[in-house]
Automatic annotation (TrEMBL):
Polar residues compositional bias, start-end: 248-268
Molecular-function GO terms, alphabetical: oxidoreductase activity
UniProt name for this protein: Ferritin-like domain-containing protein
Record region (Disordered): 241-268
Secretion signal span: none
Coiled-coil regions listed: none
Length: 268
């Protein structure tokens, strides 16, 4: 994994969030829309505000792997970027005259889920949230007429797309250590968890979605397309890796096609 690329990316990009100037205008949205948006954004704000303690602990446990050198530092910077998102969203909630949250049920379920299994699972649940965030901030930037919400949503959308790419790089490194059958199991459970999360979010944020003229079903449809796009890119990389490994094996002296039939998959 090219962790140096990510370290540089986060160092440059997070600074932009601290310096981001928001339009100096009062919120002019109708009362019901303002209220629904403020509540919804406050939930996302709470989700972005974690300190990453467990994620960092998990990261330390794989820090010695050769292919993940520098990953620990990259995760520290990634967590810092998420905290800069929390700060931007807090400014947005204040602008919308909403209330910042300390606890909220869907956020608590989400945090509990993240720590159920191991680092890969923690990252996967985090990734699920980022795929949902991509849809959410995309809709806010396109459909909310408030200039402060638009400015923040546009920046967060760009950042979350970077995060998706960062997580994909990490998952690729971990998935190449699994057999093709286990990769399929992983895909299935990832899809199931993502679908369940999209249902919960589309229900929990239904008032906000209504104010943006988006139905919960349309939100879930967009979320499913984002998942497909993420997953197909990941699978393309895994296939390329497998093809490359097979070609390397074929060019190795002593390799024969008949022996290949009984060989294990190069990625197992
Ligand atoms: Fe974020
Ligand atoms: Fe993120």
């Amino acid at each position: 994994m090219n962790t140096q690329k990510w370290i540089q990316h986060f160092e440059t990009n997070t600074r932009l969030n601290h310096e981001l100037k928001l339009p100096d205008t009062a919120c002019a949205l109708p009362e019901a829309a303002r209220d629904a948006l403020a509540r919804s954004i406050a939930i996302f704000q709470l989700g972005e505000s974690g300190g990453g303690t467990r994620l960092r602990r998990y990261t330390r446990s794989i820090a010695s792997l050769e292919r993940l050198k520098g990953y620990e530092r990259a995760v520290d910077l990634f967590v810092a970027e998420e905290q800069s998102h929390a700060a931007l969203l807090a400014r947005t909630v204040v602008h919308l005259r909403g209330t910042l949250l300390k606890k909220q049920w869907s956020n608590s379920v989400f945090r509990w889920m993240r720590n159920l299994v191991n680092l890969e699972f923690n990252i996967q649940v985090l990734l699920t949230a980022e795929l949902i965030a991509e849809v959410y901030f995309g809709l806010l930037s396109l459909r909310c007429s408030d200039p402060v919400v638009q400015t923040v949503a546009r920046k967060l959308l760009r950042d979350e797309m970077g995060h998706l790419s960062f997580q994909r790089d990490f998952l690729f490194e971990r998935l190449i250590t699994l057999t093709p059958a286990m990769q399929r199991v992983w895909r299935w459970q990832f899809r199931a968890i993502h679908m369940a999360t999209a249902w919960v979010v589309s229900w929990d944020h239904r008032d906000c979605l209504r104010s943006l003229d988006v139905t919960p079903a349309a939100f879930r449809g967009r979320a499913a397309r984002c998942w497909e796009s993420f997953q197909s890119r990941l699978e393309r990389r895994l296939q390329e890796h497998e093809t490359h490994a097979r070609q390397s094996a074929e060019s190795t002296p002593g390799y024969s096609r008949s022996s290949n039939a009984t060989m294990q998959s190069p990625v197992s």
